[in-house]
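A quick aside before the break. I want you to see a complete sequence-to-structure record at least once, exactly as it would be stored in a machine-readable document. Don't worry about memorizing anything.
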Amino acid sequence: MSIRCTKTARMLFPKAGTDLARWSVIACDQYTSEPEYWEKAEELVGDAPSTLRLTLPEVYLEDADVEDKIAAIHAAMKEYEEQGILEELPAGMMLVSRDTGGACDRKGIVMAFDLEAYDYKAGSDSPIRPTEKTVESRIPPRLKVRKGAPMELPHIMLLIDDPERTVIEPLFEKTAELEEKYDVELMQNGGHLKGWFIPEGELTDQIEDALERLSDREVFNAKYGLTKDLPLLPFATGDGNHSMATAKAYWEEVKKTLTPEEQEDHPARYVLAEVVNIHDESLIIEAIYRVLFGAEPKAVLTAAKAFFVAHGAEVLEGEGQGDSVQVFPWYAGAESGSFSVKNSPWALPVASLQAFLDDYVTAHPETKIDYIHGLNSLKKLSAEAGNMGFYLPDPAKGDLFRGVILDGVLPRKTFSMGEAREKRYYMEAKKIEK
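That is the input. The structure line, written in tokens, reads:
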């Protein structure tokens, strides 16, 4: 049995004449420790219509005036609708191509996904699942932004495992037949973004049929070498996991107020996301680094040794060797070094490090943790007094789906698809109110 949990969407798109270079800004969960990035975005946008007015950069999530910021977002959404700055397109999908300066463009399709087919809870066997652990404490502050909002601008990227490139890639032979909706240079080194509208019809049916074939039981079992029927996994959340989880939490609240008939086609039931093939040549799976703020390096290293020894592992100074050894380089001010853990009870280095850091931050509430994309950002932040950063190796790309299918979700913030500047930029929106 295969699974269908996608559909076309009636997307909201800025009216003709809108400066799309100022309209489109990066995902709100990026540059969370670099307020200067967002200050520059404010300067570039000025008073132009922009998704910067419709989203809450998470660098401001704990500000004293966050409630005022959320109210301003809701007001701007309604203003953009009432003034016709945002117009609703016919039902369809958006074929997108993103050039960030690599060897090739990243290709995807923006469409709607059924939140009834998604579950972020541990042990979930839903057709759409997170690749990493969802931190449920991160949902309520994001839910405040969604409640009372007439529309969504999610930055979710869902992955498919399509080694034969049967779904997305063939569509780029048809771009001459499609309406080009945007061709824009993105702000702050975001690269170039193109989009072609695919109206609902024969081509969108073909796309959904091709996606459905990926979850054919026989094809699925053969792909992963399964000897028993494990839960199908057509889609895995690659980016925007907490945006997806927030959409789900909101839908569960809305659903309680609806009759079964009303639930069938309510706009909050469907979330807008871009689907990308994990085998896209542009897609580089990279580690996400950790930085501690308010940390004393010697105390952290002493605690790390005690933690791993208590869990039956051996801790070595420097870079150890061997299959059972995990190496953790660190940076702190002008200092740097590494330690190694032999026979860790956790299979992945990121799981070992995260287990220790969770334990340390719990015991030292004055110390905070953030998750950093890019080695330059890691070193820059680690160079500041009181900060300590940890480097991690890149996870193997081919093991991502297999790992989720066989072992369940990976530790939170295990991997990133590219650096911060390569994350999705907001462009399309969708109504979530009737």
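Two observations worth writing down. The mean pLDDT is 94. The chain has two domains: 6-284+420-431, 289-391. We'll return to this after the break.
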